[in-house]
């Protein structure tokens, strides 16, 4: 399966009476957007099935394996620093407790975010994980620079005031936008639109979560109502998302039942939206979704997916 496409255009013209051939190369940002049409391997919080999620160890492992994107969640500390962390509270993946936004960066840096993984995953345990620190986004971007691509979620925007402004400032500082190194995703449309207002060149991914609604007699609905459910979605609905986003991220399963199918993926693609599905960890589901024509998968086990892709 072809994973990357390099796009160039050849323009034939006349100049001064002589025929010339001009090679107009695509910009890095244009190349990135074109590549989204091919299959993307997205390391969900790094190689989080093998190392503590959202830690440098997880991202280094995923990067070493050659994934297309390092996926992460961005949140903001009480003193305004952008950190890489998924949950609204620190209880599950650290030795602390409480809401992450109530802590300063120095306080968060004192936490151990690796030992929990060893305790819950004895087969993958490594003493090197003990004492792993919460990362700032700046640290992650500085570490990998332009050698990686980043798939960043604005996490819980209502709990993280000022996140979009701080995030965009960091992306601009590290020159990741025009260089085609970043995608910004969110379930919250307003957050994506705010990012777009701050820098219209940042490619955006609208996240969706589909589930059956009791109020609608089991018909599928979307968590934030950003689109109708897959049974009711139209070209117009997809085009409304395509007005500001370059792709759609969605779940595949809800309580054991599939919520999207090949027709959904095809219709999204026909309306200019590649579809990335989260979070797929079993090889049989990976293969099934690839056969359905999905454009990328989020996974905690990028090694499994890379084996299938290669």
Question: Any descriptors?
Answer:
single chain, disordered N terminus, alpha/beta, 11 helices, two-stranded antiparallel ribbon, 310 residues, eight-stranded parallel β-barrel
Question: In short, what is this structure?
Answer:
With 310 residues, the protein is an alpha/beta fold. Helix content is 30%, strand content 23%. The strands form four sheets. Strands 3-4-7-8-9-12-15-16 form an eight-stranded parallel barrel, surrounded by six helices.
Structure commentary:
This protein has 310 residues and is an alpha/beta fold. 30% of the residues lie in helices and 23% in strands. It contains eleven helices and 16 strands. The protein has helices spanning 28-35, 56-65, 105-109, 115-120, 137-144, 163-173, 189-198, 235-242, 262-270, 283-292, 302-309; strands spanning 8-15, 18-25, 40-43, 69-76, 82-84, 135-136, 150-154, 182-186, 204-208, 210-212, 220-222, 247-251, 253-254, 257-258, 275-278, 296-299. The strands form four sheets. An eight-stranded parallel barrel has the order 3-4-7-8-9-12-15-16, surrounded by six helices. It is globular, with a radius of gyration of 20 Å.
